[in-house]
Amino acid sequence: MSLMAHVPHPNASDPHESGDPRWSVVDDTDHEALAVLRPDAEALYDAKNTREFRDKGPAPRPRDAASLILVRRDGPLPRILLGRRAGGHAFMPDKYVFPGGRVERGDARASAATILAPEAAALAGALSRRPAHALAVAAVRETFEETGLLIARPGGGRGRMGGLGFAPHLAPLRFIARAVTPPYRTKRFDARFFLAYAEQALADDRPIVGCGELLALSWLTLEEAKGVDLPNVTRFILGEVAQILDAERPDPRAPFLRWRKGDHFLTRF
Q1: What pLDDT digit, counting tens, does each position of 39-54 carry?
Q2: Does residue 231 sit within a domain?
Q3: Which residues, listed in sequence order, are joined to residue 218 by a DSSP beta bridge?
Q4: For residue 86, what pLDDT band results from cuts at 50, 70 and 90?
Q5: Would you state the pLDDT for residue 25?
Q6: Domain that holds residue 131
Q7: Which of 158, 138, 147 is nearest to 211 (CA)?
Q8: Of 16, 147, 187, 268, most Cβ neighbours within 10 A?
Q9: In this structure, are residues 33 and 44 in contact, taking their beta carbons and an 8 Å threshold?
Q10: CA dihedral 227, 233, 239, 240 (to 10 degrees)
Q11: Is 243 a member of any domain?
Q12: What is the rounded distance in angstroms from the CA atom of residue 248 to the CA atom of residue 221?
């Protein structure tokens, strides 16, 4: 069953609670897709680590973040780039994740070699105080910092990427999802997920020497990815990626996954 659910306007006082009829999406809750997010599945796929879960106090406000799903199509099956977080991290230690991280203040002002496609910019910028450009730049910058891979083209830029004579290449990025970390965690993120095909995005498929924060970087098929230790939200996003890569299925609308009254709430743009 579908119903219209109001979702937050970008100027609302609380982007996770208040709503505005100017911004609405269809709530097409996919119970099979959400199965990996049920408490019984959490024990299997996303075991609670005591360092990550708060005992009391108000839930921290989510911080804006962006991730990039890189897809290679040069083999018999598509492969996704995943890396393992170090065991010493307070947030999701030893989990396999997509490259990504927090949006920085300078990301909104950073120059880019190319701009986001209009559809990607509209989806990424909707319901957000952050401009779409900042979110996309953050996804590219964090991917470079964590993997050493350049989603870039020659040009002037900031930071180490700019020092190498490159600027972010945003045109290949497609916005595919948004997810807010559950309120019971000690750290919370409002993460936007972009997808890009390696042959269209990478300046070079060899990482820059001396870069890379994620461990055990691997190009995995979707089936192989399901076999590693993933956060359950990452597992959910993989399901969305599978639909995108399935040429026989129509492109799914981008999901917006968040928490409401103690449970997951899924709407789609």
Answers
A1: 443 434 344 443 455 5
A2: yes
A3: 82
A4: low
A5: 39
A6: 49-263
A7: 147
A8: 147
A9: no
A10: -150
A11: yes
A12: 18
